Amino acid sequence: MYTQLLRPLLFRFDPEKVHHFTFKAIRWFFKIPGISSLVKANYVVRDPKLETNVFGITFPNPVGLAAGFDKDAKLFQELSSFGFGFIEIGTLTPIGQDGNPKKRLFRLPKDAAIINRMGFNNGGVAEAVSRLKKNKGVIIGGNIGKNKNTPNEEAKHDYETCFEALFDDVDYFVVNVSSPNTPNLRELQDKKPLTALLSRLQQKNGQHKSPKPILLKIAPDLTDSQLLDIIDIVKETQIAGVIATNTTLSREGLQSENKVEAGGLSGKPLTNRSTEVIRFLSEKSNKAFPIIGVGGIHSVQDALDKLDAGASVVQLYTGFIYEGPKLVKAINQAILKKRS
Q: Where does this protein chiefly localize (predicted)?
């Protein structure tokens, strides 16, 4: 139904407007008595064999929703009903910001891809926290970043602010220094500033009675040498793991007219590269830390490939937009079959 009817209709309109419309529609729809239970019955796959323990968290299943879809924690409860084992919110910044000028979100249907240059548009961490207080059992990851106008030299303060604000209401943290849409942000991926930032957050983490897992989200555009640096940084800072990968700046092999747009590319063109990065990190580190695999998962096989490459759990974003919630269910069913 989704790919045959809903998707062609939604794809006729501006993608950012459709996103907001869809959020409103889902929120309204779930207010109808019995709808939540009906959706769960159709999409949620429940089985103890799907439970996956990673960095001290037991996920009900290993398929999550990546950051960027529910930036402001407005719909995590409803979205979990579509079969996701966890929801990652954000990227959040200390102060709400509008992000980059519109138009800033582009579909590439010939490539089953999306280009975005959103620029960390969000309402600020405090607003998200107020919504997370109403959470009813959904495992939440908090993806944090810096405000656009904060210079890199002061970025640590932005990350600390978000970390402390979210601490009581998320299950794990993700440090985002890999978005291509905030000026100079990716410079924080360099070994020295990244080590300093993660060490600072780990220091803050250790001041809490029960520290939370901190993960690093990396770009797919890193060289092998830079990926080896990432392995060293994870070891030195003792963070919990890595999310591989964010969007890419590459435009290799694209067919769609919108390929000329600036921003980060997600979707099918990223499938192989993100899997390569996962395999490289897993093999070169001797599986020393967990990896969340994300990037170009549009089929069951894409997800299984990432798990086989070394990912502990996976996340969807663009694949969810193109394929709909049936993909979440199909992946979980396939994983369950392999584990049975």
A: membrane
CATH number at residue 134: 3.20.20.70
90 backbone dihedrals φ, ψ, rounded to 5°: 100, -175
47-64 tens-digit pLDDT: 999 999 999 999 999 999
Contact indicator for 61, 109 with CB cutoff of 8 Å: no
Binding residues for substrate: 71, 116-120, 176, 181, 246-247
For residue 264, the enclosing domain spans 2-339
Q: How far is Cα 196 from Cα 42, in angstroms, rounded to an integer?
A: 46
Flag whether pLDDT at 12 surpasses 90.
yes
How many structural domains is the chain composed of?
Answer: 1
Q: Can you read off the two tokens belonging to residue 145?
A: 């970043």
**Of 179, 274, 282, 285, which residue is the catalytic one?**
179
Active site residue 179: yes
CA-to-CA distance for 89 and 86, rounded, in angstroms? 10
Alpha carbon distance 272, 196 (integer Å): 31
pTM of the model: 0.97
